[in-house]
Design a protein that fits this description.
Blueprint lengths: L1 E5 L8 H16 L3 E6 L16 E4 L12 H26 L3 E4 L16 E5 L6 H5 L3 H18 L4 E4 L2 H7 L5 E3 L18 E5 L8 H14 L4 E5 L5 H9 L5 E4 L6 H5 L3 E4 L8 H7 L5 E4 L5 H4 L5 E4 L4 H12 L2 H14 L5 H17 L1
Parallel strand pairs: 1-2, 1-4, 2-3, 4-5, 5-6, 6-7, 8-9, 8-11, 9-10, 11-12, 12-13
Helix pairs in contact: 6-11
Length: about 375
C-alpha cells in the first residue's frame, strides 16, 4: 500500500510530529508500506525525530510563515496566493506518485486536499480537541470568531473519506458526522518494570504554559502540604518557569521541584507513586498513558479532551476542571492509602496495553483497508 502524509514540517518537536514519526516508521519498517511525507515549511531543516530511511520526503517550499512580520493585509493577500501554489504543487505530486491514501494532519491543505481527484482516498487527522481555538482565544470577541470558524470546518470535513479524532469525548463534540472515527495515539513502549508506588513522590510533566495549568497544581499542592508535608512534587518540562517559581516562593512551598525536560522520563515515573495532570485542555495527553505504562495511578482535571477517555475509577481520579481543592483532595486520597496505590498501579499498567503500538496500528490498518474497498 502506498501512503502519503501531508504536514507543515518535520523539524518541530511537537507531539503530532512524534506520533507521525512512530506511525510512519511502523508502516514503512514493519509492514513494508511505501510511505512518503510532504511538507510545506521544511526549509532544509533536519527532522527532529528519527524517521526511517525507507520513508521518502518532499518539501513543496511554500513557506507560509516567512511573511509573519509583514502587515496583516499583505499577509492575507500573500496567503491566498501561496494557497493556490500549494494546491497546484500538491496536485502535481499526487498525480505523479499515485498513492492509495493521502492523509492531511489538519494543516493548511485541509480545506482543499479532498478536491484533488488523483484517485487516492483522503483521510483527515485531528490531534487536538474541537474547541481548542475557542479555549485559547484571549477575549469574548475572538472566542465568538473562533467558534464560528470551528463550526464551519464541518462543511469541509464531510468531504473526506474518514475524519479521525483521538477520543470518544471529542467525537461527541463534532456531532453527527458519518465519516468520523476514533483512533487514539499509541505509546511505542510499555515498561517492563512497574513503580512500587511506595515513594512519597508525585510527578507531573509538560511545558510550562497556560495550557498545562501548573499554576493551578501549585495552588492544589499548597493544600496537600498541610496534611502531607513529607511528600514531594516533581514537575518536569521546559519553558519559562519564572512565574511558577515566584508562585512557589510566595506560598513558601519547599516540596515542589521544577525540573528540566528529560528524554528518559520513564525512570522518573518509576521513582514516583502518583501522576497528576492539571491541564486546562488537551487533545489526548500521552503523559497519562506513559505514566500508566509504568504502573502509576492517575489524578487529573476532567479537562477537554482525553482524561475522561483514559482514566477509570480502578486506577485514577477525575475532578472538575480547574477545581484545585478537589484536585488536592484526590491526591490526598491516593497518598494516604499505599495498598490502594499499589492496586491502582497494577490496574493502570494493564489498561495501558490498549494503547500499545500493535493494538492502535491494527486500527489504522483496518481503516486503510476498509477505505480502499469503498
Amino acid at each position: 500500500m502506498k501512503i502519503i502524509y501531508s504536514i507543515n514540517s518535520t523539524s518541530n518537536s511537537g507531539g503530532m510530529e512524534r506520533i507521525l514519526m512512530n506511525k510512519a516508521n511502523y508502516l514503512a519498517d514493519v509492514l513494508n508500506y511505501d510511505v512518503s511525507i510532504v511538507t510545506t515549511e521544511q526549509r532544509g531543516q533536519k527532522h527532529f525525530f528519527p524517521f526511517s530511511n525507507k520513508i521518502k520526503f518532499y518539501d513543496l517550499g511554500i513557506n507560509y510563515d516567512e511573511d509573519k512580520d509583514r502587515n496583516i493585509i499583505y499577509r492575507l493577500i500573500k496567503k491566498q496566493f501561496k494557497k493556490k501554489i500549494h494546491e497546484q504543487k500538491l496536485t502535481a505530486l499526487l498525480y505523479k506518485e499515485k498513492p492509495d491514501i493521502c492523509i492531511s494532519m489538519f494543516d493548511r491543505d485541509f480545506d482543499f486536499l479532498y478536491k484533488i481527484k488523483d484517485g487516492s482516498k483522503k483521510i483527515l487527522e485531528y490531534h487536538f480537541s474541537k474547541y481548542i481555538k475557542v479555549i485559547e482565544a484571549k477575549n469574548p470577541l475572538m472566542k465568538w470568531v473562533q467558534k464560528r470558524r470551528t463550526e464551519r470546518w464541518t462543511t469541509v470535513i464531510r468531504n473526506y473519506h474518514r475524519f479521525v479524532v483521538l477520543t470518544d469525548e471529542d467525537k461527541l463534540q463534532w456531532g453527527n458526522l458519518d465519516n468520523i472515527c476514533v483512533i487514539p495515539n499509541f505509546i511505542p513502549h510499555i515498561s517492563a518494570e512497574k513503580s512500587s508506588c511506595t515513594s512519597r513522590r508525585v510527578i507531573s510533566a509538560g511545558r510550562a504554559s497556560f495550557q498545562k495549568g501548573f499554576d493551578l497544581l501549585i495552588d492544589a499542592w499548597k493544600l496537600v502540604t498541610e496534611k502531607f508535608p513529607e511528600w514531594e512534587l516533581y514537575i518536569f518540562g521546559n519553558g519559562d518557569k519564572h512565574e511558577l517559581e515566584k508562585q512557589i516562593q510566595s506560598k513558601n512551598i519547599a516540596s515542589i521541584k521544577l525540573m528540566p525536560a528529560i528524554s528518559e522520563i520513564e525512570k522518573e515515573y518509576l521513582r514516583s507513586s502518583i501522576y497528576v495532570m492539571s491541564s486546562r485542555y488537551e487533545g489526548l495527553p500521552m503523559v497519562l498513558i506513559e505514566a500508566m505504562a509504568c504502573g502509576l495511578p492517575l489524578v487529573s482535571f476532567a479537562c477537554p479532551c482525553g482524561p475522561m477517555d483514559v482514566i477509570k475509577d480502578s486506577f485514577g481520579s477525575l475532578v472538575p476542571n480547574g477545581d484545585t481543592k478537589a484536585l488536592a483532595a484526590a491526591l490526598m486520597k491516593w497518598m494516604e492509602n499505599e495498598d490502594m496505590r499499589k492496586q491502582g498501579g497494577k490496574c493502570a499498567y494493564e489498561a495501558s496495553k490498549q494503547y500499545s503500538q500493535e493494538t492502535v496500528m491494527k486500527k489504522w490498518i483496518d481503516l486503510f483497508e476498509s477505505v480502499i474497498k469503498e
